[in-house]
């Protein structure tokens, strides 16, 4: 690992000076090579799928693991999208001329060497490599063993394409995925690695954050709530709850909790319970919600309020006030996305001011928290921490800054 | 500690909604109270000084520890300066209307609960409290035991003043300073504490960063270099080296290393060596530098290149090229401040592009890296890491962000 990190550092110092032209050429070369070499990637992927089936992987996981020609084409296309995004490097964020004549500029610079620890789908390998490269960084990828063959084949394609475009092949490196040691070395390589992004389940993220001495950005755990206020348009609320929960239950921006104001509970609860049940959602309801549901519910346990189901389940509860909803979210939310449905300006302002999360939605589904939806063109993950980046992370979030100061022999007077 | 952190969280949720008016009133109340209650602060400080003398603290440390009426007035005045700075909270950083009509805004919000672990001077207690308060955060202060009485007296004044202005007294809390346990609890209180800033020597910073599971920002270790290029104005170079080294040798932006291009070494080295020696600086020189110095030098050891002296010492070396200077800095620098003296535009551009540090100076002393000098009005430390904030940290660096999204019943189509 330390050898890989040292090679990455060397690569990073070249990448930091690469022009947008060269980096975009590398991204197009990656896209072309992925399409051209799809057969070898698909062959490697078939091995992972076969091994997954043999080891009894759930069919939903097999689906997440599987590549097809169409999926590879989409992954390649995403690289062209990243090539089309503005280069964050060199952007001047602040600056001016100080009273003494010194000229200051705070400019965006690459982060350096970025480590990525992730599970699941092989497309993350390519997405992460493309974004870190465009932001001028070298990347160390540590994927899951279930996708080992696919990741190996993909990284071979990536490295060849990057080298073909005149950038160091070591801009992209895959770390061994079988031992925990490679993760441990990665997250403790202070001075060699500038940032580690864990992307996956809560277990993976906790292990990385607890063990890391390298700075990390936590991503992806979403215990999201929809709060239906007393002043909500109830039809709108049903649509938003359904979309937030059932559009793609396995992703982090899916709602896991429904909070309903008591004043509209009698009318709203039966309606939303019927629609959720019809969509196949299991309701884990508190007693007040259950009493009004008019459809089968499961009694909510204490742990339900803290559970990110990632499935067709939702915890549901009647609350006495907006303040109660805010307190409940403060206690149980993961700081990802929280939504209010209301027609009342004051309630909306209160909720957006008081709720402490990466994204707060008014009259919109939680499912919109996404780099693509937010117009960032891509995302490497959704940060749920407050340091450095919060919410969808794309190119600017993969950079740091540097103050550049020009003078003419300036010395500082004694104070 | 966990009780204190929980009280801080409650205070932080009030502070987050406090208007600038109220926060500035609290800062003015702090300034007034510091002046009014100076006698009790000075009495407490006298105890620390007495204990320091008894335990044989060096006179320079006694000076750093000592408060006077004039110093308290200056500390109070700094609070009024912070009150005059713009409120970072609520600033809209990005935003727009998405193609589907959703309105997005990324706004600055307070970080929440900030922990500060620091050594030395009692003014840090007040400065840190004022800045974190203005940025809408609650602060947990863990100072050094050498300043215990002073810090206790100061925090009593701060809490009273904050409460008098209508904000929670628990916005400012002092943690026990005698056991290591309070630091350990602080830096592992994930979910309760949002950010810990260690400020002090390398030992303190390493201990915090290695043990922390809470996000941290490293501050303050500065192994800074001045590189005198072949195209330098040599008189200017002497002034910049002298100012960078000797203006205040004990601060992190002081230069600890001098790199001289071989082409001007013969003329420059004797000149700068004479001036440095005259200023009482000990030169730890490599053999090429020593041979030209014409004044007494000490042979540089390997560890000299990695030492932050914080004293009237400098490591000095002749290098063959700008590229060698850049490599040396990459290997030994701490990412704080690096300076080049040159009249050559190409050399200046090359150096500023290649050197990876919080601040890179062209024809200016390293001593300018400072929040006050950079026009930030204050600073809570100088970050030497790349995540979140790099260089002098002031109010915006003590905030996070939140996406606020307003819709009209928006749901996301299936993809």
TrEMBL record, chains A, B:
Pathway: Amino-acid biosynthesis; L-proline biosynthesis; L-glutamate 5-semialdehyde from L-glutamate: step 2/2
Main location: cytoplasm
Cell location: Cytoplasm
Record's catalysed reaction(s): L-glutamate 5-semialdehyde + phosphate + NADP(+) = L-glutamyl 5-phosphate + NADPH + H(+)
Keyword ATP-binding applies: no
Stretches assigned to the Aldehyde dehydrogenase domain: 3-281
Described function: Catalyzes the NADPH-dependent reduction of L-glutamate 5-phosphate into L-glutamate 5-semialdehyde and phosphate. The product spontaneously undergoes cyclization to form 1-pyrroline-5-carboxylate.
Protein name per UniProt: Gamma-glutamyl phosphate reductase
Organism, scientific name: Allokutzneria multivorans
Gene assigned in the entry: proA
